């Protein structure tokens, strides 16, 4: 009887490990959990490209409505000198929700989540004057200068295209 329990326990542990491994393999590779400094470095790595940086969260209804427009923007402009970067302000404990949402949206653009429990420093890596409302989108030209003021609230694809085209035209 004792050996049977040990065998059952071993099987349960093995199944759990395999399920975890399968989930990790299914997790999108484009999601990176970072510190504020790593986020700054990642954003700077795209210098020379037009950057569309969107701050969002899975619990934010308007963010969820806007996100497909960002996915479409990324897919349309990724080979035209534009990078769309999604910066999630979900808590580190909500990483599974971020993974599920990004997978559901079939988003291939870079997605960053915070490793630190204090989100203020993480978000200030994007904008030191961040007021706390999401979604908010920053569009930077190739020199890293803002094309427009931060776009607060959910935006439509056409709005993003207008400002991305403006940024691409700037020299």
Quick synopsis:
This protein has 6 helices and 6 strands. With about 170 residues, it is α/β, with parallel strands linked by helices.
Notes on the protein architecture:
This protein is of the alpha/beta class and 171 residues long. The protein has a single domain (29-169), classed as Glutaredoxin (3-Layer(aba) Sandwich), CATH 3.40.30. The chain is 47% helix and 17% strand. It is built from six helices and six strands. It has helices at 2-26, 36-44, 61-77, 95-104, 119-124, 157-169; strands at 31-34, 50-56, 82-88, 111-114, 136-140, 151-152. Strands 1-4-3-2-5-6 form a six-stranded mixed beta sheet, with helices on both faces. It is globular and about 40 Å long. The protein starts with a helix and ends with a helix. Mean pLDDT is 86; it is low at 12-25.
Main traits of this protein?
single chain; 171 residues; alpha/beta; Glutaredoxin; 6-stranded mixed sheet; 6 helices; globular
Secondary structure: elements and pairs:
Elements: H1 2-26, E1 31-34, H2 36-44, E2 50-56, H3 61-77, E3 82-88, H4 95-104, E4 111-114, H5 119-124, E5 136-140, E6 151-152, H6 157-169
Parallel strand pairs: 1-4, 2-3, 3-4
Antiparallel strand pairs: 2-5, 5-6
